[in-house]
């Protein structure tokens, strides 16, 4: 593809022995792992907001760079960003992208005007997509940036805000379907509280549930076949958000009869802000049949905010892909909701970041496939007595009462536990990480 913004050639797989930093050492899209091509395991996506909208600003500092696709006119910038998106994807081999409505096009003076601007930009996007293999992974609406959402969107105390948010989501569901998106994500960035005493928690919970019900109703009305997903996050920007973590969201969905309608989009940095590991949140979603997609990034353990760094920790990607393998893959895919550091000012830094992270996940997939072979027998052995002994099978099958258990336990002496062997597991992990076969 013609170079407009990125002074690099097309990135291809050259294998682990290649000395070319701008090549894939582990990500070989057509290579099969456990019966599925790598590109099918991942469906890597570039996040429009961080990659093409960011100017290097953070909560403590002003922008540090001005990308060449930024123009004085916001609409011209919107068209230029599409050029940048497709050049970027052609050169990296990334086949999917994700976006909020306001990432793609600027906001007008009214929702009607905003939708007209968005339609014009979507038309150009569709023209590009006709001659490209680049596809939409999922869409979403920005219900957190504008001042109208300062006190929430679905949970706002003002019904006009609720209505406006519903209008934005309706439009984005239409656009996502029109572009062939595999899913739609809802992130309640402002759905929470800053002062509990001033919050009607019962009403706000009902409002949030009603909003989600409306989303489900409209999805069915327009026959959108993609998966609806909620993205958990514990805090920031609000003090406490109602979608705190995977368990909280699953409880909420069950309470309001929405459990069958949504899956989860799990983000690594949100997991750590909630006091969990990335793998833990993936596990909770998976064992409940709700792992739909991943926002791949990482936080900094020495910083207490959402730093959204690119994921290059292979230990973490290995444990993440272990859960994805156990899940049989993802309904949607793996979106790089990550940004380069604000001192990384060259457009090519975006290429380096995505290439290294794609390799980190590809290596993680390879290692996770091997890890399962080693770990599964040890896990089965650890719980074997529930399947091999009569008392164990009775407990599992619900064929024993509390009185019977009490009678059984009265004569027990010297109960022994097998060693957990955590150090052995860590040794196995390192052996897999640092040896080849």
Helix content: 40-55%
Largest sheet: 8 strands, parallel, barrel
Categorize the overall geometry: globular
The quaternary organization reads as single chain
CATH homologous superfamily placement of the largest domain: Divalent-metal-dependent TIM barrel enzymes
Secondary-structure element string: EEHEHHEHHEHEEHEEHEHHEHEHHHHH
**Topology-level CATH name of the largest domain:** TIM Barrel
- CATH architecture assignment of the largest domain: Alpha-Beta Barrel
How far is the first residue's CA from the last residue's CA?
38 Å
Protein name: Xylose isomerase
GO molecular function, one term: magnesium ion binding
Active site: 100, 103
Subcellular location: Cytoplasm
């Amino acid at each position: 593809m013609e170079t407009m913004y990125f002074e690099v050639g097309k990135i291809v797989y050259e294998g682990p022995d290649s000395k070319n930093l701008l090549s894939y050492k582990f990500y070989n899209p057509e290579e099969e792992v456990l019966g599925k091509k790598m590109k099918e395991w991942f469906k890597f996506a570039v996040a429009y907001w961080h990659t093409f909208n960011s100017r290097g600003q953070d909560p403590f500092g002003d922008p540090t760079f001005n990308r060449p696709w930024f123009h004085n006119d916001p609409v011209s910038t919107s068209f230029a960003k599409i050029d940048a998106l497709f050049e970027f994807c052609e050169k990296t081999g990334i086949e999917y992208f994700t976006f909020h409505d306001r990432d793609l096009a600027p906001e007008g003076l009214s929702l009607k005007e905003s939708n007209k601007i968005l339609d014009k930009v979507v038309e150009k996007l569709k023209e590009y997509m006709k001659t490209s293999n680049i596809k939409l992974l999922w869409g979403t609406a920005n219900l957190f940036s504008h001042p109208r959402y300062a006190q929430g969107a679905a949970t706002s105390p003002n019904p006009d805000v609720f209505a406006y948010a519903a209008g934005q989501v309706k439009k984005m569901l239409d656009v996502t379907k029109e572009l062939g998106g595999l899913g739609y994500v809802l992130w309640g960035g402002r759905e929470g509280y800053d002062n509990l005493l001033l919050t009607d928690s019962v009403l706000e919970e009902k409002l949030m549930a009603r909003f989600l019900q409306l989303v489900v109703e409209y999805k069915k009305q327009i026959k959108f076949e993609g998966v609806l997903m909620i993205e958990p996050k514990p805090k920031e920007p609000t003090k406490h958000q109602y979608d705190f973590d995977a368990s909280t969201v699953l409880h909420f969905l069950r309470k309001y009869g929405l459990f069958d309608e949504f899956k989860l989009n799990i983000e690594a940095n949100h997991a750590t802000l909630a006091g969990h590991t990335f793998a833990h949140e993936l596990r909770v979603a998976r064992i409940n049949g709700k792992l739909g997609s991943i926002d791949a990034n990482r936080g900094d353990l020495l910083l207490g905010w959402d730093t959204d760094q690119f994921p290059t920790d292979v230990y973490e990607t290995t444990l993440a892909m272990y859960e994805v393998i156990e899940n049989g893959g993802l309904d949607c895919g793996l979106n790089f909701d990550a940004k380069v550091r604000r001192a990384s000012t060259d457009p090519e830094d975006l290429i380096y970041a995505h290439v290294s992270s794609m390799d980190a996940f590809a290596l993680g997939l390879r290692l996770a496939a091997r890890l399962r072979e080693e770990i599964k027998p040890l896990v089965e052995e650890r719980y074997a007595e529930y399947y091999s002994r009569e008392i164990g099978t009775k407990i599992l099958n619900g064929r024993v009462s509390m009185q019977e258990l009490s009678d059984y336990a009265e004569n027990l002496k010297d109960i022994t536990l097998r060693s957990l062997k955590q150090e052995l597991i860590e040794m196995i992990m390192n052996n897999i990480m640092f040896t080849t076969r």
